């Protein structure tokens, strides 16, 4: 079993999310999906945005790195005109879907909107499109996602990430062993 902690606004989570299913299947490993919010963790460090925005040199490097890695993995890529994109509603829906068979497909759809199509993802229309494409009851799931109970559940999930020492996304856990970054996905799976 591998725990996959991710955020829809995270460009490196995009790389991992688009690959993790196939890699986990190859290793006969179950994925435990753990959506969480990066912004509160960044705020705890005194940051008001992504380090890729706060440090321009790092930001320039990251966009070139993303283009290379997407080419390597055969993934579509378009640098977002807005980064990091707010993703509260799709993250709330992902929390609902974490143990559902549609989870991976929903997440891929949202990630493609953000990082392959350069579209806003934090709105009812985008989330409805993703859910409808999977023939899911979009209105009911969105209403449930926006409930106070689910909002609190996402806050608690983010607090759990922080308590485990997560400082970025994607992060993987194999038992108590933490692996950070898309480039550590294979290492985590090999450990299993």
From TrEMBL:
Enzyme class: isomerase
Domain DSBA-like thioredoxin per the UniProt entry, residue ranges: 2-188
Keywords of this entry: Isomerase
EC id: 5.99.1.4
UniProt-listed GO biological process terms: glutathione metabolic process; naphthalene catabolic process
InterPro entries linked to this entry: DSBA-like_thioredoxin_dom (IPR001853), GST_Kappa/NadH (IPR051924), HCCAis_GSTk (IPR014440), NahD-like (IPR044087), Thioredoxin-like_sf (IPR036249)
Active site (record annotation): 10
Catalysed reactions, as listed in the record: 2-hydroxychromene-2-carboxylate = (3E)-4-(2-hydroxyphenyl)-2-oxobut-3-enoate
PANTHER family: GLUTATHIONE S-TRANSFERASE KAPPA, GLUTATHIONE S-TRANSFERASE KAPPA 1
Protein name: 2-hydroxychromene-2-carboxylate isomerase
Organism of derivation: Dyella choica
Source taxonomy: Bacteria, Pseudomonadati, Pseudomonadota, Gammaproteobacteria, Lysobacterales
């Amino acid at each position: 079993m591998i725990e996959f902690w991710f955020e829809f606004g995270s460009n490196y989570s995009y790389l991992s999310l688009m690959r993790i299913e196939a890699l986990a299947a190859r290793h006969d490993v179950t994925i435990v999906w753990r959506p969480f919010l990066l912004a509160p963790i960044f705020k705890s460090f005194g940051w008001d945005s992504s380090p890729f925005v706060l440090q321009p040199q790092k930001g320039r490097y990251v966009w070139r790195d993303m283009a290379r890695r997407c080419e390597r993995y055969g993934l579509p890529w378009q640098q977002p005109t807005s980064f990091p994109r707010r993703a509260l509603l799709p993250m709330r829906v992902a929390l609902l879907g974490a143990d559902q068979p549609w989870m991976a497909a929903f997440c891929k759809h949202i990630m493609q909107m953000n990082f392959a199509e350069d579209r806003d993802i934090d709105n009812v229309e985008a989330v409805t499109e993703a859910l409808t494409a999977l023939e899911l009851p979009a209105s009911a799931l969105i209403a449930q996602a926006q409930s106070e109970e689910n909002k609190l559940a996402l806050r608690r999930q983010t607090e759990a990430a922080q308590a485990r020492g997560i400082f970025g996304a994607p992060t993987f856990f194999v038992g108590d062993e933490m692996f950070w970054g898309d480039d550590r996905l294979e290492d985590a799976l090999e450990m299993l």
